[in-house]
Amino acid sequence: MLPRAVAVGAARTRVRLELVPLGRDLLLLISGGRAHVGAVAVARPAGAGGPAGTVVVPPHKEGPLAERCAALVAEAAGCACAAVAGIHQD
C-alpha cells in the first residue's frame, strides 16, 4: 500500500507530496508555498520505451524536480508516473 500524502518542513519551507493512483499508473503532486503547475513530467520504468517527456511553464524552474521524481516513482512502482510540481516560496 502506498502512502497518500506526506509533508516535510514547516511554515514557508513546507513541501507536500501526494501520490494518487490512476488505474495502473500514478500521479505525483509536489507542492509548497503557493501551489501551482510549474512543470509536468511523465516517466516510464526502464525497458518500457524510454522517457516520455517534460513540459515547463516559463519562467518556472521545477522541471528537473518533476523529471527526477517521476523517474524515481516510475522505476520503483513499475508503472508510468506523471509528476506535477509547483513550489513557490518568496
Structure description:
With 90 residues, the chain is of the alpha+beta class. The protein is built from 1 helix and 6 strands. The chain has one helix at 63-77; strands spanning 5-8, 15-22, 25-33, 39-43, 53-56, 81-88. The chain has a 6-stranded mixed β-sheet, covered by helices on one side. The mean pLDDT is 91.
List keywords for this structure.
6-stranded mixed sheet; 90 residues; alpha+beta; single chain; 1 helix; 6 strands; 42% strand; globular
User: Strand fraction band?
Assistant: 35-45%
Number of strands: 6
Helix/strand structural class? alpha+beta
Spatial arrangement of strands, main beta sheet: 1-2-3-6-4-5
Percent helix, as a range, is 10-25%
Q: Could you give a short account of the major beta sheet? A: 6 strands, mixed
Mean pLDDT: 91
* N to C succession of SSEs: EEEEEHE
Characterize the overall form: globular
| Alpha-carbon distance between the two ends | 35 Å
In the predicted model, the low-confidence regions spanning at least 5 consecutive residues are: none
Rg of Cα set: 13 Å
Task: Please report the number of helical segments.
Answer: 1
Regarding quaternary structure, how should these chains be classified? single chain
